[in-house]
From TrEMBL:
Pfam families: Transpos_assoc
Protein name: Transposase-associated domain-containing protein
Species name: Dendrobium nobile
Transposase-associated domain boundaries: 15-87
Alphabetized InterPro entries for the sequence: Transpos_assoc
Domain of life, source organism: Eukaryota
């Protein structure tokens, strides 16, 4: 998906909490926000794919079970664009980034 900078930054949420300790307030709040976001892409049974280190987006689980897995096991490494949970990935060109940061293209 091609998009402008404003759309790019609104779609790419802060996920810095994913690398924090699983018992930290930031991590737990981040998991809660993820569950809220991912709940928009539930299947007909009301379940979502579980992105924990064990399930690796292979199994549909209830929101409660996904939350429990993420708190106890953490996200599987590399899942940074939540495309299996409704997040779209934008591709923006080099000129758009340079225009925003320096005012001129490379």
């Amino acid at each position: 998906m091609q998009c402008d900078l404003e759309t790019h930054f609104s779609l790419n949420m802060d996920k810095s909490w994913i690398t924090k300790a699983k018992w930290s307030r930031d991590y737990v709040n981040g998991v809660n926000n993820f569950i809220e976001f991912a709940s928009r892409s539930k299947n007909l049974s009301g379940k979502i794919l579980c992105p924990c280190k064990s399930c690796i987006n292979r199994y549909f689980l209830s929101l409660k079970d996904v939350k429990d897995h993420l708190i106890s096991k953490g996200f599987f490494p590399g899942y940074v664009v939540w495309n299996r949970h409704g997040e779209e990935h934008c591709i923006i060109d080099e000129y758009a980034i340079n225009d925003a940061s320096r005012g001129t293209p490379k």
